Amino acid sequence: MPAALFGTLRTPRNLVFGAGQRGALPAFARSLGQRALVVTDERLAADPAFAALIDAISRAGVATKVFSGTIAELPASCITAGVEAGRAFDPDLIIGIGGGSCIDAAKVIALILAHGGTASDYYGEFKIPGPVLPLIAVPTTSGTGSEVTPVAVIADPDRAVKVGIASPHLIPHTAICDPELTYSCPPSLTAISGADALTHAIEAFTTIRRDPTATIAHEHVFLGKNALSDHYALLAISHIAASLKPAYDNGTDTVARERLMLGATAAGLAFGTAGTAAAHAVQYPVGALTHTPHGAGVAVMLPYVMEFNRSHARAAMAEIADAMGAETTGLSEDQKASAAIDAVAALFGSIGIPRTIAELGVGRDQMPLVAAQAMGATRLIKNNPRPLDPESMAALVAAAFHGDRRAAARLNS
């Protein structure tokens, strides 16, 4: 008997997408406040397009202060510096412009300026007591989907792995997604961020489906597979699968850039409600040990995680094969699931994603540590469609270390 229809979405109040739509930013800023702290990084702060945006906001009557101290992968020190800059300026609005780290930094700065304390006071789910300062997010990469999600991830110096703050209060008030801002993205960043987005969509589409009780939306920030998140996940998969390689090959392919950004935002809408799972759990310790980008780590893990989960998400993976444009005529459901995994692995290989966590720099002697720390990512592990225990996690990590997808598949037997 098919599952009863159930769906939940947590989204920004305004989501604007399209080439040139960054021009909508000043009016949105003016509607939310009179003093805006703009959070970005040093590279973007020196970009003429960024300067033009700041000038436009100022002409709209909104005073601005730029904090350009965001650092990739978001160490806690740059959050502290951003909060200090904010307190000195006393903003009533935060604008995050840049990649996922810039937008996550804007979220956490908006949180601490509103509620005080330090980031560590809010680690976990539902720890934020109320609304944060109004947030506008303007992404310049097609990757994290942070412009539409309820989570921010930072690197805490007192913890071995990155840690998340998850609450619907972190969803930006307004997201403005202008693919023109991604045109200057180099191929390597296009690949890593796009692979991250595809991983978001596939994990959201294959995550656990929970019993839709009347309290589910209050018990879980990421509540699992549902009809509405599924819609955005499939939309994301189809657009990313068709556009990632063309955008990687030719950054001036405007159609590919548009489709890739639309796919990344749709993936954010999907996982922002449904959640992600084991690929993200393993990336946290891998990233901490190897200092490699988040998108690279989740992408390396995804084919192995899909093999491991196939017995518990076979029908969903068959749909993924179709969404990716794989040739599935005459195939059984299980064969379609295999085709989906093959298509993901082939796409990632074509854009230079490494095939193993060993290639990312994980040592053989570090595999037990990776597995143990991955199991500590409770909010991700509980979303995996197939239950994970320390033994199966260790085997999954070993398969990804040795590059043996068949070993991951054998874990189903």
Name its key features.
alpha/beta; Rossmann fold; Dehydroquinate synthase-like, alpha domain; 2 domains; six-stranded parallel beta sheet
Structural description of this entry:
It is a single chain. By secondary structure, the protein is of the alpha/beta class. The chain folds into 2 domains: 14-182, Rossmann fold (3-Layer(aba) Sandwich); 187-410, Dehydroquinate synthase-like - alpha domain (Dehydroquinate synthase-like, alpha domain, Up-down Bundle), CATH 1.20.1090.10. It is 52% helix and 9% strand. It has 18 helices and 9 strands. The strands form 2 sheets. It has a 6-stranded parallel β-sheet, with helices on both faces. Strands 5-8-7 form a 3-stranded mixed β-sheet. Strand 7 (151-154) and strand 8 (163-166) form a beta hairpin. The protein is globular. The protein starts with 13 loop residues before the first strand and ends with a helix. The mean pLDDT is 95.
